[in-house]
Write a structure and sequence with these properties.
single chain, 122 residues, 74% helix
Length: 122
């Protein structure tokens, strides 16, 4: 009898709990080229790394949105307005932090492109 209650409680907890998508936060390129001394190949490799990071970040942001939508849908009528607002606040914070980091990486790379062009101007 006790085991069936424990199993039922576990099943309710797992099935009725919030749905968590496996949103993996992408890792920014570990090293961007130094425009003063980089070769064209190194700059192109850096560009490809930033583009790949951008694709991964887009996937992460899509995952965050899906995760948020699933949490709202699974909560249905049981979520209070405050709970929905808190979920939205957390989703917006995660989204904005990710976009800020992406913009920072792109900005740093673009700065190195300018330095490269200045260093290699004829």
């Amino acid at each position: 009898m006790k085991s069936s209650i424990v199993i039922a409680a576990f099943t309710i907890a797992v099935a009725g709990g919030p749905v968590y998508a496996a949103c993996s936060y992408p890792v920014a390129p570990d090293k961007l080229p130094d425009g003063r001394v980089a070769s064209m190949d190194e700059m192109l490799t850096g560009k490809k790394a930033v583009e790949e990071y951008n694709k991964q970040m887009d996937a992460y942001l899509s995952c965050l949105k899906l995760e948020y939508d699933e949490r709202i849908a699974s909560g249905g009528e049981t979520l209070t307005a405050e709970q929905k607002a808190e979920l939205e606040k957390r989703q917006v914070q995660k989204h904005n932090a990710a976009v800020d980091e992406l913009e920072s990486v792109a900005s740093r790379f673009n700065e190195q492109v300018k330095v490269y062009k200045a260093a290699h101007a004829k």
